[in-house]
């Protein structure tokens, strides 16, 4: 009799809620404790690797004077954005993904969402500006030093962070994402324990185009132009090699390798974030039927881009591998270590 009553009580209680005492609480999906532990370990490993990898990139570019170039300044700023994703965005997102509820308060939810959007847009704008940098380096090498100077790269960085911060914080704190559909949101979507970015059809279309579509079109178009010019240059380089112009060959090889590496970084970025942006775009037109779990999976796939970039540098750049060895062996604390030559002459 007691067992039956206990079972009946559990059935009558209904779904598990994020806040049992709240009438407007979200429902909570409870993972088995073993799965929770594995998820926490997995997400923690991603966050820690992201922070450590990008920290090495930041230290290397700041410490070694040979790396103080306009291209590397953009790379440094991109690494800062990736580090913030690993150190600030991923831990609360991990808690939300594993617990399936948000327990960190409404204000921090807005800050976290704003920073998440800001860093995503910042990365997109950096990718676009890096493509411009590579365009001048490959297509107009004689004008490169006069057009892409350290002050110009700092302007690009400032624009990337400034515009991204304005859009990210304005969208969340001014509730631009629900403008025109507030009644539906507060009646059918909003609940205590949720921390999501709900967007109307108009908001998702505009934000997806401006934050993803337009930068993607610009970057891809520029890299296609670079590819065409590079093909023409390869024939010219071969001709120059026969005529003994070795310096010209070396410079073009160096720029070509940097362009290839940064193009791969751009490709990895767009591939990793495309699923999330696609779901974000079509969900309002499907009456918001895409499950939250799908969004969560695609969100973490997007986060993985921040982890991948240091590995791309390590795979393609010998200077990064050399800098990594110096940093790990604590040789950066030796006198004049910032003056070390990291470049391979025959790379």
Describe the structure.
The protein has 347 residues and is mainly alpha-helical. The protein has a single domain (32-339), classed as Rhodopsin 7-helix transmembrane proteins (Rhopdopsin 7-helix transmembrane proteins), CATH 1.20.1070. 75% of the residues lie in helices and 0% in strands. It is built from eleven helices and no strands. It has helices spanning 2-13, 33-63, 70-99, 106-139, 141-147, 150-173, 182-189, 201-242, 246-282, 292-316, 318-328. Helix 3 runs antiparallel to helix 10 and helix 4 (106-139) packs parallel to helix 8 (201-242). The termini are far apart.
Question: Any key phrases for this structure?
Answer:
347 residues; 75% helix; globular
Summarize the entry for a quick read.
The chain is mostly helical and 347 residues long.
Layout of secondary structure:
Elements: H1 2-13, H2 33-63, H3 70-99, H4 106-139, H5 141-147, H6 150-173, H7 182-189, H8 201-242, H9 246-282, H10 292-316, H11 318-328
Could you state the order of secondary-structure elements as H and E? HHHHHHHHHHH
Radius of gyration: 24 Å
The average pLDDT value, as a whole number, equals: 84
Global outline: globular
Counting DSSP H or I runs of 4 or more residues, the number of helices is 11
CATH secondary-structure class: Mainly Alpha
Could you name the CATH homologous superfamily? Rhodopsin 7-helix transmembrane proteins
Helix content: over 70%
What characterizes the major β-sheet?
Answer: none
- N-to-C span: 79 Å
* Beta-strand residue percentage: under 5%
């Amino acid at each position: 009799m007691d067992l039956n009553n206990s079972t009946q009580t559990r059935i009558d209680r209904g779904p598990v809620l994020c806040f049992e005492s709240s009438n407007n609480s979200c429902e909570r999906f409870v993972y088995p404790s073993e799965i929770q532990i594995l998820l926490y370990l997995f997400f923690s490993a991603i966050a820690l690797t992201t922070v450590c990898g990008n920290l090495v990139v930041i230290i290397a570019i700041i410490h070694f004077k040979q790396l103080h170039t306009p291209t590397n300044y953009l790379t440094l700023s991109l690494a800062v954005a990736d580090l913030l994703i690993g150190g600030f965005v991923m831990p609360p997102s991990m808690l939300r993904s594993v617990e399936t509820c948000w327990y960190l308060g409404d204000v921090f939810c807005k800050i976290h969402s704003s920073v998440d959007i800001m860093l995503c847009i910042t990365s997109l704008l950096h990718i676009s500006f890096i493509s411009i940098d590579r365009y001048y380096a490959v297509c107009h090498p004689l004008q490169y030093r006069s057009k892409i100077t350290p002050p110009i790269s700092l302007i690009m960085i400032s624009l990337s962070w400034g515009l991204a911060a304005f859009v990210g914080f304005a969208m969340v704190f001014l509730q631009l994402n629900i403008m025109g559909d507030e009644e539906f949101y507060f009646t059918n979507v909003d609940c205590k324990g949720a921390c999501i970015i709900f967007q109307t059809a108009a908001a998702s279309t505009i934000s997806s185009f401006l934050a993803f579509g337009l930068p993607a079109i610009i970057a891809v178009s520029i890299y296609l132009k670079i590819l065409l010019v590079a093909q023409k240059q390869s024939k010219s380089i071969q001709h120059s090699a026969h005529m003994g112009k070795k310096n010209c060959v070396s410079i073009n090889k160096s720029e070509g390798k940097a362009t290839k590496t940064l193009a791969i970084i751009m490709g990895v970025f767009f591939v990793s974030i495309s699923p999330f942006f696609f779901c974000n775009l079509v969900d309002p037109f499907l009456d918001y039927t895409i499950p939250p779990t799908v969004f969560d999976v695609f969100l973490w796939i997007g986060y993985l881009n921040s982890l991948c970039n240091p590995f791309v540098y390590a795979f393609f750049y010998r200077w990064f591998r050399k800098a990594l060895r110096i940093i790990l062996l604590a040789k950066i604390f030796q006198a004049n270590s910032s003056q070390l030559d990291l470049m391979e002459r025959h790379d």
